[in-house]
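Why APO domain-containing protein? Reviewers of the renewal asked for a concrete example.
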Amino acid sequence: MHRRYLSSSSSSSILSHFNSLNKFQSSPTHHLCHSRTLTTVDTTTTRDHSYADIPKPPKSKSERKPYPTPMKILVQRAKQEKEARKAQPCKLLEDPPENGLLVPELVSVAHQVYQARESILLGLSKLVNVIPVLRCRHCFEVHIGQVGHEIRTCSGPKSGLRNATHVWRKGMVHDVIYFPKCFHLYDRVGKPRVIHNESRSFKQLPAIVELCIQAGLNLENYPTKRRTRPVYSIEGRIVDFEDTQVDSSLDCSLNSELQPKGDLGNCDLNIREVSSMVLDSWFEMISGAKKMMERYKVHTCGYCPEVQVGPKGHKVRMCKASKHQSRNGMHAWQEATVFDLVGPNYVWHVADVAGEVPLCNDLKRYYGKAPAVVEMCVQAGARVPDEYRSMMRLDVVPPCRDELDLVT
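Here is what the prediction returned.
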């Protein structure tokens, strides 16, 4: 309202109201001290960036895996690629590895990941003889320790009759760490997809090894085509107008290094040193696989553990997970994570290694978890990694069994 339409009384009341507001803004705690005290906490300083909680299992078997990249971003990328193909139907692909060439800086990473994997398997074969590994007879549960735990999480056949308790037997190395297999692609660009009728004519190998091969590793039993010139894309289809040759110049200098890392083959090493080397190889393998997956595409089924390394997922109708009837047995492919290539197989952390008291089911919320490789190395004497301290809940002191009723 214009000033000339304001009366003297109304103008004085408005001015007094503004003055009270300014006074409140100048000293806000003066007016709130009688009700409550306001405290500001700097979350940037108190937040633990290395905090990692125990991964939560899916609520039901029909639940799909979460997308690493949000669906909104995937739709935007698809629209941009479609518009780019309309604007330029025929173009020379320049960015590797989409053009069929290798990424030079990832060739050495592929060799390091392969060596780290071999070192892990060699080290675990020695640790299994010292650290006991237990495996449930009816499900995939694994326990690292002298005595199997009593936590009732068995989901195998007739688990209801056993009250979901596990029946333990001796485990092996493949129970500690699991590498899912995929089809080997001779030409990842020219023929990136395996159809259903060709499933028996293609070799299978661990997916992380296939990733290393596509990134520059040469293995005798798994030949692959190396290009020296990029390919063309015509309306989304790959066309190669040049003669393809085997490009081994980037890999010849590294073929002599395909041996397990460190001195794990030395019999003089004690268990503590072996466990430390295995733990270092574990982190090297995980970090190297993440670097390669940033450039080389890896797909996994959204409902089952199937993995395929390459630009596209295969068309073999072998999915038996939830809703596979509606897909005619086809997999629901999506972007994979590093733990789809390497099964971490989380196990319960045992704080008292020498003790013979099993983990109690009533106290399971106080126990932590860790990958079976990390748990075995820690029990063998390796230092606890900072990345898994919070997941293993080392700062939590579980109560005794007779004190359970006293804990809120």
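The first helix runs from residue 8 to 26. This is the kind of structural detail the renewal will allow us to pursue systematically.
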